[in-house]
Each structure stands twice: as C-alpha cells, then as structure tokens.
C-alpha cells in the first residue's frame, strides 16, 4: 500500500511541475534577451576646387558640356575664377563721313562633339570656394581704339545690350546684372555681383540669345571722326573680386 502511495505522490509532483512551467509569462523570455543598439558614422568633406573651369555653351550651360571658343584664352585659376570672356570683332567697314553703328559678330565655338556653332558673346565666372561669401565682376575698356601707330578713333562708344544671366546654379538672385552696359574708356563698370549668401557655382552674362547674338553689342562711330585705312584695336580688363555687393 505504501508503495502505491509513493508512485501517486511522484506522479502528482511531476504534474504540478509541468503545469507551473506551462503558465510562465512569455515576457519573461523577451526581457532576458533585450534589443541592442549601436551607432556608426557617415562622413564627407568638401574642399575648394582650384581646377580651371571650362567655358560652357552660352545658351544651355546646364548641359554641362564644355565648349572650345574660337578666340579662347586661358581662364584664371580657381576657386574663384574668370573662365572666359569674348573678344569683340566689329568686322571690316567702309570709311564714311556719316555716323555709323556697327554690330559685333557673334561668338563662334565648337561644342563637345566638334560641331561649329555661333552664340551670344559672353563672360563666364565660377565660384567654387564653398563659402557663399559673394563676389563682384567688373569690366574696363582700357583705352580708345588705336592703330599700331597710336592713331586714335576718337568719340566712339561700345554698348552691350540684351544682357541676361544664366547659370548652372539654381540661385539667380544676383544683386547686379544690368541689361545694358555703356562703356567709357578707362572706367570700370559692374557686370555681375552676388551678395553674401549667394553666387556659388558658374554664372554667365550673355548679351543676346540665339536670335540676337549678332545684334546685341554695338560700336557707335561719329562721322566726323578721322578714320585711317588701318586696323584699330583696344583691350578690356575683366576683374573679379571677393568683395560682395552690399545689400
């Protein structure tokens, strides 16, 4: 009889232990494992780009394709640079005693495929400093047109018309961007200017578009001015400074 009681007690104990295990809360296991977190880093550093910037197409600079102007001269070094400025050719004209207005020929260039094209005369600058500190571009006609023998073409005047700014940047909020510029020899004239907080990227001031490229820059010559049967030349100095325009 005692032997049977022992078996019963063992069976009951085993049953109770199994029952107690079956009712343990599930959360007990979740709390014992726990979620683990770890933080890693990502990093990128930008620096000013001193690489010269190639001239871009004056009609569609956002294409990003460099061009080869027919009159290309090397641009200045970066990161704040003058990349290109058109040379002006008013052609060969007949001597006249009447007041005359001559138009500069359009800019000629080859696109990235080597195709020859024409477009508006322009000037291009790039700000890759990474500061958005602003800048100012000016141009000065260094003197009046003269021959190699120093004979001056007196009283003549150059006028830039249909000026407009295009850019690879979305920021076109330039402080100075005159549509018309009237040159006075020896006097610097503002062309474009970006105030602090603006002006990063490449900017082009173009005079005219594909339809007015050959009629936007004028040379006015008085009829009374002496004209020798010679070539007359002048030069232009383009100056880009780190001094922004005051708001």
Automatic annotation (TrEMBL):
Annotated coiled-coil segments of the chain: none
WxL domain sequence ranges: 35-244
Endpoints of the signal sequence: 1-30
Region described as Disordered: 48-83, 95-128
Low complexity bias (residue ranges): 57-70
Keywords: Plasmid, Signal
Pfam families: WxL (PF13731)
Official protein name in the record: WxL domain-containing protein
């Amino acid at each position: 009889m005692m032997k049977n009681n022992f078996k019963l007690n063992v069976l009951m104990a085993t049953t109770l232990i199994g029952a107690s295990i079956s009712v343990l809360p599930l959360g007990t296991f979740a709390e014992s494992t726990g979620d683990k977190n770890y933080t890693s880093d990502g990093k990128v550093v930008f620096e000013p780009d001193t690489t010269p910037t190639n001239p871009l197409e004056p009609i569609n600079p956002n294409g990003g394709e460099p061009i080869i102007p027919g009159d290309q001269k090397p641009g200045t070094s970066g990161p704040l640079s003058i990349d290109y400025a058109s040379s002006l050719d008013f052609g060969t004209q007949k001597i006249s005693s009447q007041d005359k207005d001559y138009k500069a020929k359009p800019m000629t260039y080859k696109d990235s495929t080597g195709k020859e094209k024409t477009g508006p005369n322009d000037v291009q600058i790039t700000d890759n400093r990474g500061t958005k500190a602003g800048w100012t571009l000016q141009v000065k006609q260094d003197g009046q047109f003269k021959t190699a023998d120093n004979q001056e073409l007196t009283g003549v005047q150059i006028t830039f018309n249909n000026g407009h700014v295009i850019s690879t940047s979305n920021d076109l909020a330039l402080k100075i961007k005159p549509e018309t510029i009237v040159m006075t020899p020896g006097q610097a004239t503002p062309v474009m200017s970006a105030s602090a907080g603006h002006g990063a990227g490449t900017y082009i001031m173009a005079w005219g578009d594909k339809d007015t490229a050959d009629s936007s820059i004028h040379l006015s010559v008085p009829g009374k001015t002496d004209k020798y049967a010679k070539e007359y030349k002048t030069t232009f100095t383009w100056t880009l400074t780190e001094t922004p325009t005051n708001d």
